């Protein structure tokens, strides 16, 4: 028997009751993410992309349909999932290292020596070696987001959810972070769901791109990225990547014009 | 000691080279000190030139002359009586307000039931409740401490609750996804995030605590700076009453600065970053 996919959405719908009435955020969303696959989710603002992530993490229950993670229906918060938010949202009073070990300290009350060593290794991996004793305030926005990535990787989750993680960064830093992600996931494969507004980022990083429609969010189309790994800086110039980016841009623009 | 919350203006390069008036004024507290001294000098001048009678507005020199005549021991005992009540009431207010704020944030039911009650208590003038509390609780520090706590604690509850609720929602989601014990969401995330809010309330409350102690002394007491002022005015010793007022102002200022210093030493990260 084939092993179940890492993530499976089955005819999922989400309706929010708000003061101004019912808002249908998602309708009949079905897709799968294979183990160690990097899926980018692209779509207009307010199409329920972040809601998808919350459901995978078990922070939100769908109104209809189901989400399965490794073949098991998600009914509550799951610990085997790392989350990287749009903003770094670090603890301003804690050092960089303490921020990375935070999930463990929060769960168990304290972090031991092996945990701190692990944090050091993760900081090295995200290119922040030697910054462990600094406060988040002393770091640039890009560096802070690297700390956020290291924090999400601390528990060595099978699944990493990234909610527009680079949208607050300037264009150059953003590109640099993209290349770093390619390297990090090259060393240590993860199942990643990556939400973004950037078509070139999606084409550069992902194995597959899921394009969503506006509210209510539905799956418009899925496009594979026809570029082999490992990818690097030169990949961004690859005609297959630029071609896909153009195609994605057209899809999104068409949608907005309609 | 600085008299403003933020330190004085940054020094320019030109100002750093030669010592001029602008640079001296830039030294922490210098401008404030100068303003105070200037006001006192003007006051003295006005009192002498215009010949304002002492029972209307005593000259600063007449006020300061009463300090040695009262003597350090008497001042000390009055200051201690007021300070003791103010600090105990302030401490009690913190001890009640912070857990109460946590409860209000954690429980929507408490928020809906207790919060209106708090607003009603706050809307009732403490000066009006004070005599009632004194009748109920009798003589001694207890009623005065209760009055002080009543006047101090509302800003603390409101600010702490606001701070606890202003925590980034992402971190609360992170906490939930980790399935950590709920108490750690309070101790490791919400309370530290509320620290700047708590300290802005502490700065207000600590000066209110002096007001509370004085209000209580006005109602019933035989010691304290408030009592000393009331006693002095009843004897028409106006300069002496003014001297008591100066002492109260100095006490409030010192307590305020102590809170500022505590924040700077214990939670330096909670201060706005200087450019």
Written description of the protein model:
The complex is a heterodimer of chains A (258) and B (275). Helices cover 35% and strands 25% of the residues of chain A. In chain A, strands 6-7-8-3-9-10 form a 6-stranded mixed beta sheet, sandwiched between helices. In chain A, strands 2-1-4-5 form a 4-stranded antiparallel beta sheet, covered by helices on one side. In chain A, helix 4 crosses helix 5. The radius of gyration of chain A is 18 Å and the shape is globular. The N and C termini of chain A lie far apart (44 Å). The relative contact order of chain A is 0.18. In chain B, helix 5 packs across helix 11 and helix 7 packs across helix 8. Chain B has a single domain, classed as MetI-like (MetI-like fold, Orthogonal Bundle), CATH 1.10.3720.10. The N terminus of chain B is likely disordered. Chain B is an all-alpha fold and 275 residues long. Chain B is 79% helix and 0% strand. Chains A and B meet through helix 3 of A and helix 9 and helix 10 of B.
């Amino acid at each position: 028997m084939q092993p179940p996919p890492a993530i499976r959405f089955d005819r999922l719908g989400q309706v929010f009751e708000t003061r101004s009435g019912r808002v249908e955020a998602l309708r009949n969303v079905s897709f799968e993410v294979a183990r160690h696959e990097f899926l980018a989710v692209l779509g207009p603002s307010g199409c329920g992309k972040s809601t998808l992530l919350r459901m995978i993490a078990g922070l939100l229950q769908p109104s209809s349909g189901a989400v399965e993670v490794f073949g098991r229906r998600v009914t509550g918060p799951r610990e085997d999932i790392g989350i990287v938010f749009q903003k770094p949202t670090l603890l301003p009073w804690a050092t960089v290292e303490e921020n990375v070990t935070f999930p463990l300290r929060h769960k168990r009350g304290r972090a031991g020596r092996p945990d701190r060593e692990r944090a050091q290794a993760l900081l090295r991996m995200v290119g922040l070696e030697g910054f462990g004793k600094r406060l988040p305030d002393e770091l640039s926005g890009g560096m802070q987001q690297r700390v956020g990535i290291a924090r999400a990787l601390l528990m060595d989750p099978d699944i990493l959810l990234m909610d527009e993680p680079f949208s607050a960064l300037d264009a150059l830093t953003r590109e640099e972070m993209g290349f770093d992600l390619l390297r990090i996931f090259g060393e240590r494969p993860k199942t990643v769901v990556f939400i973004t507004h950037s078509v070139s980022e999606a084409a550069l990083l992902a194995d597959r791109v899921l394009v969503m429609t506006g509210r209510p969010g539905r799956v418009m189309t899925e496009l594979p990225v026809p570029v082999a790994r490992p990818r690097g800086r030169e990949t961004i110039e690859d005609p297959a990547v630029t071609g896909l980016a153009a195609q994605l841009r057209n899809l999104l623009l068409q949608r907005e014009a309609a | 000691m600085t008299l403003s919350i933020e330190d004085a203006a940054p020094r320019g390069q030109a100002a750093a080279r030669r010592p001029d008036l602008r640079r001296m004024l830039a030294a922490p507290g210098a401008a404030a000190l100068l303003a105070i001294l200037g006001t006192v000098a003007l006051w003295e001048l006005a009192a002498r030139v215009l010949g304002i009678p002492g029972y209307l507005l005593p000259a600063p020199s007449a006020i300061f002359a009463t300090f040695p005549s009262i003597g350090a021991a008497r001042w000390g005992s009055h200051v201690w009586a007021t300070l003791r009540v103010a600090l105990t009431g302030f401490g009690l207010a913190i001890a009640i307000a912070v857990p109460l704020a946590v409860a209000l944030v954690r429980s929507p039911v408490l928020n809906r039931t207790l919060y209106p009650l708090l607003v009603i208590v706050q809307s009732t003038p403490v000066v009006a409740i004070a005599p009632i509390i004194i009748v109920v609780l009798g003589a001694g520090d207890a009623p005065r401490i209760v009055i002080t706590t009543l006047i101090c604690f509302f800003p603390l509850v409101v600010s702490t609750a606001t701070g606890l609720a202003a925590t980034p929602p992402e971190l609360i989601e992170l906490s939930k996804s980790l399935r950590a014990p709920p108490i750690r969401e309070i101790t490791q995330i919400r309370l530290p995030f509320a620290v700047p809010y708590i300290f802005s309330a502490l700065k207000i409350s600590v000066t209110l605590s002096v007001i509370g102690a004085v209000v209580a002394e006005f109602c019933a007491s035989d010691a304290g700076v408030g009592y000393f002022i009331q006693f002095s005015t009843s004897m028409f010793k106006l300069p002496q009453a003014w001297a008591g007022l100066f002492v109260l102002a100095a006490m409030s200022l010192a307590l305020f600065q102590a809170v500022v210093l505590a924040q700077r030493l214990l939670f330096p990260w909670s201060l706005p970053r200087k450019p």
